[in-house]
Design brief:
By secondary structure, the chain is mostly helical. The chain is built from 13 helices and no strands.
Length: 308
């Protein structure tokens, strides 16, 4: 029998820390967007995170791939996992709340299950997964609100942009499994961010103008946070938790991110979300719990109490 991976106290702490780091990234990105454009914010994020991760690779003396095919895979992975989702979500945050962005971001796990079922024979869509996906989509529809799709406006477009980013994340997970599974996580992340930077840096300069560093201190702090801590540092912490808890347990971080993002958005930006958003998140959370399957397994294993 295959031993199931569990969450130790230390791993739980790392998982919660990762959720807090990523939850705060939505706020820091929104703060930076008050002074820089979405593409510039992404260029900062990928460039500085790339430098940090290559430093880690150098210190650990990890082998760097030389095969051009691997570097092409890095470029495509960078587009799918960084350039497209980071850009879409940063633009979306200009028009919707940070808490709402984090809720829609949680749909990544739902689209990830669908993408895996389409591309991998060993991850077919079971009945339990189909129910979880249906609940997840119902939650997303509740968050957006059918009336917003009927009366289409800029806010509706922003929400769809964020969802587009989650679909790109899902496709990135497929591409990463197919092409980068044999590499160390640190090298894979550094290579991916290198591919991202090769796209985002010139794109930001062409569309939004030269990169400026004469920025307000709060903007510089926000950039430093989401680039160094919430990207480079979070990738390293992510793989630490993945190695010790497995991908199933790591899915919990998707649920934990949102409460931190909502709380920070309310405290710092005075954001207020409508009741349908919270109801939709509850449905989405239930869908993710069903996809995870742990609650159902525990219920089946719990002993029945027989009355005398």
């Amino acid at each position: 029998m295959t031993q199931q991976m569990t969450l130790s106290t230390r791993t739980w702490a790392a998982l919660i820390l990762l959720a807090m780091i990523w939850g705060a990234s939505f706020l820091s990105i929104r703060i930076a967007l008050d002074e820089i454009g979405p593409l510039t914010s992404v260029a900062h994020r990928t460039f500085w995170a790339m430098l940090v991760l290559w430093l880690v690779v150098a210190v650990m003396r990890l082998p760097v791939p030389r095969d051009p095919a691997v570097w092409m895979a890095f470029l495509i992975m960078g587009l799918l996992n960084n350039v497209i989702p980071f850009g879409l979500m940063a633009w979306g945050q200009l028009h919707i709340e940070t808490g709402l962005t984090s809720i829609l971001n949680a749909a990544t796990a739902v689209f990830g299950v669908i993408a895996a079922a389409i591309f991998f024979a060993d991850e077919r869509l079971s009945l339990r997964k189909a129910i979880g996906v249906t609940l997840g989509f119902t939650g997303v529809a509740t968050v957006i609100g059918l009336e917003n799709l009927r009366d289409f406006n800029l806010q509706s477009l922003a929400q769809l942009a964020v969802l587009g980013g989650t679909i790109s994340y899902a496709l990135a997970s497929v591409w990463g499994r197919k092409t980068l599974s044999g590499l160390s996580p640190q090298v894979a992340a550094a290579g991916m961010l290198t591919g991202s930077t090769l796209v985002t840096l010139p794109l930001a300069v062409v569309v939004e103008g030269p990169i400026q560093f004469d920025l307000a201190p709060v903007t510089l702090i926000a950039i430093a946070y989401y680039a160094v801590i919430a990207t480079a540092g979070a990738y390293l912490l992510y793989y630490y938790v993945l190695a010790r808890a497995g991908s199933g347990n790591l899915m919990l971080v998707t649920l934990l991110i949102t409460p931190f993002a909502i709380l920070l958005g309310a405290l710092v930006l005075d954001e207020k979300l409508s009741p349908n958003v919270y109801a939709g998140f509850a449905l989405l959370a239930l869908g993710l719990a069903v996809l995870d399957g742990r609650l159902l397994r525990r219920r089946r294993k719990s002993p029945r109490v027989v009355a005398d």
